[in-house]
Design goal:
The structure is a single chain. This protein has 24 helices and no strands. It is an all-alpha fold.
């Protein structure tokens, strides 16, 4: 039994001793509540005289400064937050004076002793600065998208590949890929500006930029020109750099397709043995030489689940964070758990599965569950449904309901719902569980 109440109770009367006459007198005096610093009223008066546009500029500066500080902490900003802000002010001033855009960014790179490409690492995050503002203030829209779009166009004119591809990737993905940020970015550019960027992309492709080659091929393929698209994909696969740079492209840049993936998909669409062989060769380069998780995942489709190669490729993809690979591995281990003999008859597979099958009873099912959990933690809703089924079979009704609730949650920010039918099914099951719940006595 705790002694704390016994100690605290006798202390209360001591703390409530009667107030002296000075305290009574002080209590009768008027108190100036909510006192503020003397300069506060002056600042508020000055602020109230600002136009909505001036207030918007101040709000943007505060939001940008806070966002840049976070970016610098993550080592994703090439300059300090104050310097990056000064660079933006310098760019806008020169832009207002109608300085040639390419000249403008080259001069800024020289002034701040950076490469032109480093400025792209400021422009791309600008597109993501959150617009935090006073809900009672009627302010015009944030200027960050406009500033970022002008910066990207200037950088593209200065032949920066990342800026050019950021603009065109937004245009490419805005039509039917369901990437909401791409649509928002694409709207910032006119048709004439997009055409100028496409001309720059073609120049970069001719000069050997493999990312430009790949995106150029994607635009050609979408236009039905599969022959020229194949040519650019093959050139990109031949010339691609096998080294991995974790800081390029910028983590906030729009997704880009690797040339071996684009070439393999195009070849597989032809559905001939020769095209299939070319697709496999492209994927082998992406997987075995470069270590691309998606290449490993697609390469596994050339094997079946009873071969050691399938097991190796799918594990490589899953270990690198490919969600569909982790989901398939979960099913794979569920199959092993259901019929271990058919898998363990293969001596090579037996060696690969030994760590799981010889540990303890039920270890294979536990491993399957862990792979499903990894997929679910990345937002993979079919994996969540598997976990709901497993929880239900184990008698964990609350766990099953939690997974079903997760399925009915919204998709990832900026993306459309990938599994709408699964969301409907989870909603129906949740409704059925609520109806079936007995009423308390």
């Amino acid at each position: 039994m705790s002694l704390l109440p016994a100690i605290c109770r006798p202390a209360k009367p001591v703390l409530r001793a009667g107030s002296c006459v000075f305290c009574y007198f002080r209590a009768s005096q008027p108190v100036r509540r909510y006192a503020v610093p003397r300069g506060y009223a002056v600042r508020k008066a000055v602020q109230s005289r600002k136009t909505p546009q001036e207030l918007r500029i101040d709000t943007d500066k505060r939001n940008r400064s806070a966002f840049f500080r976070l970016m610098k902490m993550e080592a994703l900003l090439p300059l300090g937050p104050l310097q990056a802000d000064e660079l933006i002010d310098d760019f806008l001033a020169a832009h207002k004076d109608r300085v040639d855009p390419a000249t403008n960014v080259r001069q800024l790179a020289k002034k701040y002793k950076r490469l032109v490409g480093d400025i792209t690492y400021i422009a791309i995050p600008l597109l993501q600065v959150p617009d935090v503002k006073n809900p009672n203030a009627r302010l015009p829209p944030s200027q960050h998208p406009m500033i970022a779009s002008r910066l990207l166009l200037a950088l593209s004119a200065a032949k920066d590949s990342l800026a050019t591809l950021q603009i065109l990737a937004a245009v490419y993905h805005s039509s039917n890929d369901g990437i909401r940020p791409a649509r928002d970015i694409a709207r910032l550019f006119s048709a004439a500006e997009v055409n100028e960027c496409k001309e720059m992309m073609e120049k970069l492709a001719e000069e050997g930029d493999t990312a430009a080659m790949t995106l150029h091929g994607q635009f050609l393929e979408r236009a039905g020109q599969t022959g020229p698209a194949k040519y650019w994909y093959e050139r990109a696969v031949e010339k691609c750099d096998t080294t991995f740079d974790p800081k390029y492209p910028h983590p906030m840049a729009l997704p880009r397709e690797q040339p071996w993936i684009a070439l393999a998909d195009l070849m597989l669409s032809e559905n001939t043995p020769e095209a299939r062989a070319k697709a496999k060769a492209a994927l082998e380069k992406g997987a075995l030489e470069i270590g691309d998780p998606l290449a490993y995942y697609k390469l596994a489709s050339f094997e079946n689940g009873m071969t050691p190669n399938w097991h190796t490729y799918m594990n490589k993809a899953a270990a690198s964070g490919h969600l569909e690979a982790t989901y398939k591995l979960g099913h794979y281990y569920m199959d092993v758990n259901a019929d271990p003999a058919s898998f363990l008859n293969n001596s090579q597979l037996k060696k690969a599965l030994k760590f799981a099958t010889s540990w303890r009873p039920g270890s294979v099912q536990t491993l399957a569950k862990e792979w499903f959990r990894i997929a679910a933690s990345g937002g993979h809703k079919p994996a969540m449904m598997e976990l709901a089924e497993m929880s239900k079979s184990e008698g964990d009704e609350e766990g099953a309901k939690n997974w079903l609730r997760n399925i009915t949650g919204p998709p990832r920010a900026g993306h459309t719902e990938e599994w709408p039918k699964l969301v409907e099914e989870a909603s129906r099951r949740l409704a059925g569980l609520r109806i079936a719940r007995p009423k308390p006595a």
